[in-house]
From TrEMBL:
Transmembrane segments: none annotated. This is DNA topoisomerase. It comes from Scylla paramamosain. One of its GO terms (molecular function) is DNA topoisomerase type I (single strand cut, ATP-independent) activity. It is an enzyme of class 5 (isomerase). Its EC number is 5.6.2.1. One of its GO terms (cellular component) is nucleus. The keyword Translocase does not apply. Keywords: DNA-binding, Isomerase, Topoisomerase.
């Protein structure tokens, strides 16, 4: 009997897939590496009886690194890192993943890859292939033996459909990841080693164990510092607002909006105030009533999920995506990494809704939708990757921890909301005059809550309805006064705003955006304040100002955006891997040489902000491996992320 070896991206996913494909009739055992289980059963593959064996990896099997001698920070000039050899090493040596895969694949006739369906997953496919091909049986006649499963949700229907429509792994997408890994390794390590050695050896209060540079990380920090600089340089201006209150009834007052909005000249504002004070009553000029809509949301993609998680749920994007991945592997939601906001034409919207009709919180709303008919979803963007993020199973609060439930609840309510009508309301604007000055007041009256019935945080407020007034009516003026105010700068960037900027400028991917934001926080370049706002630290500010002083390209988003475009062309088979790699390395190598030559410009900024090493009074020693300065602590481990003694 022939055998089929199958590999998923995570142990939990392998178990779910095995249960679905075997009808819960598989036997399971622990693999020798202690991390991955192996599930076996018999079934049919390509019209023949076979023995299936399903296991998994734990993310990437291999990672790109420099050969050992190039990881000595003291003996290797960082400039060498642009041209020195690289090699693939085991991503987690203690898992012995290549050995484990090779052993379990021994004697197999076919390989079916169930890695996540994105570029990173495609890259892991080829890592797995390189580990198992020497162990598998040779098939004569050039028969296809390597297959790729394409799926977007861990449900019986999706998984069985994927098994019945296997494809080949996409080498172009994998090569684009190889290119990104090599560029980030060479560029990031060269700049990071040089500036860390230069500044850690001179200043003692940097509050960071590593002064890192990243082709995506640094422009991400640049957005935060740009907002900080705008706030610091902002010069407030004083202005005056004419505020008027009128009485409608004994119990009801209206605050009117001045048509001129504000005046920056107090004397002029006083003239207008005196005009108003000469009158006792405000006259209604006209009442305009117009039916308006608050549009239902488009289908949910990754970037929007991260934005809402931060702004609405108070979760960092990295934390939110970790929870989303867990919900996905447990089968509660579809694949959470997608750029698409348009449901495919064959998407079973009714079927997905019916799953939720018995829910205690929103089941009654779902039953109404099914009874009255689904509203045709808004036409969104089809990126050609995965369907939008949708709930795949019904769940209740008690099944999750607090944050996981809130994320699942939002995803489900958003999905239901996309299939409901727009919210409609009556917008009423009352225009009034007092002497020569014009005022207005606007209110809203709900007609149909539409999607806000389930997405209730977006519902109209009850107190927005205006009284019934007619043209020609006069209302007594209760109060007329000038209020002095000042213009104010915008606040620091929120994570949600930063995500929008990164998406707009092409910095990172939906998978890497949360990683870059997390990195600038972990490196102590920004701190997350109330409202999940990102406030740059002194170190973050000085670094960005230093790059701007020496070479603004290093911190501007345009450069990385251009690189991302080239990487996407590799993925599409429209650009040559080696050409893109060599051209980009040459550009950054020249920029690195110029940066090293002009580092004094950045150092001048460090001198103003930080104290010399000798003045800090801190006991310091040098790591015996990477030779960086570290605080003397009880442990012998170095905290440097790139040091072997971590």
């Amino acid at each position: 009997m022939k055998s089929v070896f199958m590999v998923a991206e995570k142990p939990s996913l392998a178990q779910s897939l095995a249960e679905i494909l075997s009808g819960k009739k598989c036997s399971s055992r622990k693999g020798f590496n202690g991390a991955c289980s192996v599930h076996e059963w018999t079934g049919v593959f390509r019209e023949q009886s076979v023995r299936f064996k399903m296991t998994s990896v734990c993310g990437h099997v291999m990672s790109l690194d420099f050969p050992g001698k190039y990881n000595n920070w003291d003996r290797v000039d960082p400039a060498e890192l642009f041209r020195c050899p690289t090699e693939k090493k085991e991503a987690t040596a203690k898992l012995r993943m290549p050995e484990f895969l090779g052993k379990e694949a021994r004697g197999s006739d076919y390989l079916v890859l169930w890695l996540d369906c994105d570029k990173e997953g495609e890259n892991i496919c080829f890592e797995v292939i390189s580990c198992v091909m020497h162990s598998m049986n040779r098939t004569p006649g050039g028969e296809q033996i390597i297959f790729r499963a394409k799926f977007s949700a861990i449900t019986d229907r999706d998984i069985k459909a994927a098994m019945n429509s296997l494809v080949e792994p996409n080498e172009n997408e994998s090569r684009s990841v190889d290119a990104r890994q090599e560029l980030d390794l060479r560029i990031g390590c060269a700049f990071t080693r040089f500036q860390t050695k230069f500044f850690q050896g001179k200043y003692g209060n940097l509050d960071s164990s590593l002064i890192s540079f990243g082709p995506c990380q640094t422009p991400t920090l640049g957005f935060c510092v740009e907002r900080h600089d705008f706030i610091q340089s902002f010069k407030p201006e004083t202005y005056w607002v004419l505020q008027v209150k009128v009485a409608v009834t004994e119990d009801r007052q209206l605050a009117l909006e001045w048509e001129r909005v504000r005046s920056f000249d107090k004397d002029v504002a006083n003239v207008f105030l005196n005009v108003v004070k000469e009158n006792k009553r405000a006259k209604v000029i006209k009442v305009e009533m117009k039916e308006k809509t608050k549009p239902r949301p488009a289908a949910l993609n990754t970037v929007e999920l991260m934005r809402i998680a931060s702004s609405g749920l108070g979760m960092g994007p990295h934390h939110a995506m970790t929870l989303a991945e867990r919900l996905y592997t447990q089968g509660y939601i579809s694949y959470p990494r997608t750029e698409t906001t348009h449901y495919p034409e064959n998407f079973d919207l009714k079927g997905a809704l019916r799953i939720q009709e018995g829910h205690s919180d929103w089941g009654s709303t779902v039953r109404e939708i099914l009874r009255d008919g689904i509203q045709k979803p808004k036409k969104g963007h089809d990126a050609g990757d995965h369907p939008p993020i949708t709930p795949m199973r019904c769940a209740n609060r008690g099944q999750f921890d607090h944050d996981s439930w809130r994320l699942y609840e939002y995803i489900t309510k958003h999905f239901i909301g996309t299939l409901m009508p727009d919210c409609t309301y009556l917008s009423t604007t009352i225009s009034l005059s007092i002497g020569s000055e014009n005022f207005s007041v606007t209110g809203k009256q709900l007609i149909d809550p539409g999607f806000t019935k389930v997405m209730d945080w977006l519902a109209l407020q009850d107190d927005e309805k205006l009284p019934d007034l007619k043209g020609g009516e006069e209302l007594p003026i209760l109060e007329a006064k000038l209020t002095e105010r000042q213009t104010s700068p915008p606040d620091y960037l929120t994570e949600a705003e930063l995500i929008s900027l990164m998406e707009k400028h092409g910095i990172g991917t939906d998978a890497s955006i949360p990683v870059h934001i997390n990195n600038i926080s972990q490196r102590n370049y920004v701190q997350v304040s109330a409202g999940r706002r990102l406030v740059p630290t002194n170190l973050g500010i000085v670094l960005v100002h230093g790059y701007q002083k020496i070479d603004p390209d290093l911190v501007l988003p345009t450069m990385r955006s251009a690189v991302e475009e080239q990487l996407n062309l590799i993925a599409l088979g429209k650009a040559d891997f080696n050409s893109v790699l060599q051209h980009t390395i040459e550009i950054f190598q020249l920029k690195f040489q110029y940066f090293v030559k002009n580092i004094q410009g950045m150092d001048e900024l460090f001198e103003v902000t930080f104290s010399p090493l000798s003045a800090t009074g801190r006991p310091l020693s040098r790591c015996g491996k990477c030779r960086r300065y570290i605080k003397l602590v009880e442990t012998k481990a170095c905290a440097a992320p790139l040091c072997d003694l971590r």
